[in-house]
C-alpha cells in the first residue's frame, strides 16, 4: 500500500520537529519519519540534559557567531529568530531563563520539557509522526518522491531531510542523510567532529583531571603556524584524557580539520585578565608584601593549588620556593607557564563525543531563502545535515530551529 503526502520530513530532531509542525500548520498533509523509537533523542542529551535552546542575542548576533557560514542564515532567522524561539516555547508552557553567559535554558533545567513542548506542537499541528520507521530508500518518479521504509511505502510531493550529522551516533545520527543528498547530486563537505573534547598524552594534564577554571584564553598553533589558527576564551576543564570545556571545544574544529597532524598545540593563558607586565608587577608586589610565603601559596590566590603546583613543575621551579627567592630567570619562566603554557594535542574524542558536526551538504547548493535544493526541486534540507556549525551557547539549536521552520514554511 502506498500512502500519499504533500510533505515527508525525515528525521525527528530539533529541525525536523519544527519543519513538520510548520508545514502542517499551513494545511499540508505531513508525515514525519523517525528511525528511533523516540523523537528528539539528542535534545534530551544536550546542555547536560538541560537543553540550551538559543542565545540571548539578536539575529545579527546569531549570524556573527557562525562566521563565514552565518550569511546563509539571514532568511531562516528572519522567519524564526531567537526571540521568536523563546516566545514559541513560552506559548507551549516552557518558561526560559538567561544565564550570565547568555545561554537560554528552560527555567526547569529539564531538556525533557523542551522535547515535550515540541511533541505537543507537532501533535496540535496535525502532522503524523511514525517512530521506529527507518527510511531504506528514496527515489524520484513523475508523481513525486518515493520513500521506502521497513514498514511501508510513501509518495510525497516534497521531502525535507533533517537527519542531522554524525555527532553522538548513539542518538541515531549516523550520516544517513548525506547518502540521499549525494544521490540527488549534492556535494558533501567531508563531515568532521566539532565542539568536541581534545586528547593530550601529557601525564601532568591527566593528573589535573577535574580541575575547572572559569576563564582561560586558548590558542591553537602548529609548529609551522606564525599566527594562531583559532582562539577562544571561556571555561576550561582538565580531564583524564586531555582537555574540555567551552573554550577548548569551541576551537576543536580547527584540529579535526587536520586529524592526521601530529604537531597541534594549545597555548593557555591562565590569567587572561592580566597582561605580561601586570603579571610581573603582581609577582613583584607579592615579593614585597609576602616574600617569605611559599610561592605555591601566593599563586593559589589566583589559580587552584593543584594547577599551581603543576605549572611550577613545568617551569622547573621547586614548589617550596619562596616568593622573594625567585630569580629573574625563574620569574620569566613562571610568567610563561601562567600566560603561555603549551599543551600538545594528539587528537579529539571524535564523533562519539562531539556536540555537532562540521561539514555536510554544501551551502552554495541550497537556496537560503527557502531551504530548497538548487539541484533537486522539491528536496529541502535543514538542521545539522547542512555544512553549518556554530559555537557553544545555543547557536546550533537556533540554526536547527530556524532552518527547519523555514523549510516547513516553504515546502
Show the helix and strand layout.
Elements (H helix, E strand, L loop, with lengths): L1 E9 L3 H12 L4 E5 L6 H9 L4 E2 L3 H7 L8 H6 L2 H10 L4 E3 L4 E4 L4 H15 L2 E4 L3 E7 L2 E6 L3 E9 L14 H8 L4 E7 L3 E2 L3 H4 L5 E10 L8 E9 L3 E3 L1 H11 L8 E5 L6 H15 L4 H5 L5 H10 L13 H12 L1 E4 L2 E2 L7 E6 L4 E2 L4 E2 L5 E3 L13 H16 L1
Parallel strand pairs: 1-2, 1-9, 2-6, 9-21
Antiparallel strand pairs: 3-5, 4-5, 7-8, 8-9, 10-18, 11-14, 11-17, 12-13, 12-15, 13-14, 15-16, 19-20
Number of helices: 14
Overall geometry? elongated
CATH superfamily of the largest domain: FAD/NAD(P)-binding domain
Report the helical percentage: 25-40%
Overall structural class, as computed from helix and strand content, comes to alpha+beta
**C-alpha Rg, in Å?**
25 Å
The CATH class of the largest domain: Alpha Beta
Distance between the first and last residues' Cα = 24 Å
Are there runs of 5+ residues with pLDDT below 50, and where? none
Strand content: 25-35%
Mean pLDDT: 94
What is the level-2 CATH architecture name of the largest domain? 3-Layer(bba) Sandwich
Amino acid at each position: 500500500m502506498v500512502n500519499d503526502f504533500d510533505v515527508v520530513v525525515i528525521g525527528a530532531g530539533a529541525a525536523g520537529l519544527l519543519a513538520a509542525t510548520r508545514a502542517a500548520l499551513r494545511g499540508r498533509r505531513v508525515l514525519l519519519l523517525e528511525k528511533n523509537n523516540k523523537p528528539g533523542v539528542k535534545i534530551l542529551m544536550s546542555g547536560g540534559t538541560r537543553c540550551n535552546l538559543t542565545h540571548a542575542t539578536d539575529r545579527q548576533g546569531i549570524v556573527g557567531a557562525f562566521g563565514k557560514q552565518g550569511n546563509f542564515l539571514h532568511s531562516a532567522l528572519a522567519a524564526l529568530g531567537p526571540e521568536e524561539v523563546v516566545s514559541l516555547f513560552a506559548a507551549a508552557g516552557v518558561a526560559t531563563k538567561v544565564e550570565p553567559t547568555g545561554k537560554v535554558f528552560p527555567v526547569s533545567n529539564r531538556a525533557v520539557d523542551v522535547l515535550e513542548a515540541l511533541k505537543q506542537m507537532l501533535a496540535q499541528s496535525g502532522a503524523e509522526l511514525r517512530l521506529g520507521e527507518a527510511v531504506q530508500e528514496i527515489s524520484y518518479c513523475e508523481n513525486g518522491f518515493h520513500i521506502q521504509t521497513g514498514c511501508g511505502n510513501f509518495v510525497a510531493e516534497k521531502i525535507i531531510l533533517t537527519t542531522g550529522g554524525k555527532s553522538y551516533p548513539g542518538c541515531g545520527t549516523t550520516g544517513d542523510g548525506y547518502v540521499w543528498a549525494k544521490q540527488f547530486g549534492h556535494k558533501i563537505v567531508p563531515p568532521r567532529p566539532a565542539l568536541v573534547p581534545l586528547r593530550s598524552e601529557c601525564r601532568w594534564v591527566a593528573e589535573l583531571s577535574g580541575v575547572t577554571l572559569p576563564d582561560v584564553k586558548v590558542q591553537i598553533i602548529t609548529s609551522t603556524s606564525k599566527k594562531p589558527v583559532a582562539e577562544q576564551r571561556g571555561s576550561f576543564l582538565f580531564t583524564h584524557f586531555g582537555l574540555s570545556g567551552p573554550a577548548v571545544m569551541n576551537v576543536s574544529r580547527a584540529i579535526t580539520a587536520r586529524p592526521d597532524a601530529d604537531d597541534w598545540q594549545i597555548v593557555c593563558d591562565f590569567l587572561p585578565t592580566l597582561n605580561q607586565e601586570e603579571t610581573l608587577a603582581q609577582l613583584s608586589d607579592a615579593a614585597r608584601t609576602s616574600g617569605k610565603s611559599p610561592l605555591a601559596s601566593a599563586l593559589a590566590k589566583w589559580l587552584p593549588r593543584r594547577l599551581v603546583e603543576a605549572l611550577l613543575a613545568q617551569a622547573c621551579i621547586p614548589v617550596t620556593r619562596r616568593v622573594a627567592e625567585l630569580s629573574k630567570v625563574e620569574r620569566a619562566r613562571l610568567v610563561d607557564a601562567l600566560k603561555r603554557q603549551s599543551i600538545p594535542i594528539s587528537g579529539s574524542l571524535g564523533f562519539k563525543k562531539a556536540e555537532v558536526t562540521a561539514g555536510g551538504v554544501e551551502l552554495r547548493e541550497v537556496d537560503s531563502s527557502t531551504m530548497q535544493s538548487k539541484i533537486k526541486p522539491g528536496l529541502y534540507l535543514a538542521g545539522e545535515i547542512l555544512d553549518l556549525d556554530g559555537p557553544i551557547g545555543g547557536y546550533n539549536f537556533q540554526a536547527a530551529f530556524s532552518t527547519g521552520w523555514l523549510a516547513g514554511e516553504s515546502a
